[in-house]
């Protein structure tokens, strides 16, 4: 592989991958970075890179949350647009249209259809 930071987003994931590879008798070597898990120095460097990759991911998440909070405070953040109308799903179901046909017609998954149907309609009582 070329770069370790593309391998995992958290230290735990990175350690799990390295442990799995080691269990199979494979050493991890990055072509663009001085990392070879077959050496003590390579293992130490890998752990440091893993810590920084996780730190960077956490910083990104924090900045995103701060940006969303600031936008909400200004009243400009509305969240994502609803992709479907739950009432359309319920209306079609009440007309006797089967969930798989509703899904195809609305371009959504069958699981999404079931999520918007009352339990009574799912059980065939509606």
From TrEMBL:
Transmembrane segments: none
Protein origin, superkingdom: Bacteria
Recorded coiled-coil stretches: none
InterPro entries linked to this entry: Homeodomain-like_sf (IPR009057), Resolv_N (IPR006119), Resolvase-like_N_sf (IPR036162), Resolvase_HTH_dom (IPR006120), SSR_resolvase (IPR050639)
Pfam families linked: HTH_7, Resolvase
Residues of the Resolvase/invertase-type recombinase catalytic domain: 1-75
One MF term in the entry's GO annotations: DNA binding
Family as reported in the entry's similarity comment: Belongs to the site-specific recombinase resolvase family.
Protein name: DNA invertase Pin-like site-specific DNA recombinase
UniProt source species: Sphingomonas aerophila
């Amino acid at each position: 592989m070329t770069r370790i930071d593309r391998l995992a987003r958290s230290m735990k994931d990175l350690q799990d991958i390295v442990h799995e590879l080691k269990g199979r008798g494979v050493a991890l070597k990055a072509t663009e970075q001085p990392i070879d898990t077959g050496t003590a120095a390579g293992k130490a460097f890998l752990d440091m890179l893993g810590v920084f990759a996780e730190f960077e991911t956490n910083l990104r998440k924090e900045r995103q949350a701060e940006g969303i909070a600031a936008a909400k405070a200004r009243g400009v953040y509305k969240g994502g647009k609803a992709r479907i109308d739950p009432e359309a799903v319920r209306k079609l179901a009440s007309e006797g249209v089967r969930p798989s046909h509703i899904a195809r017609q609305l371009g959504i998954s069958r699981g999404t259809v079931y999520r918007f149907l009352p339990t009574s309609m799912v059980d065939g009582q509606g």
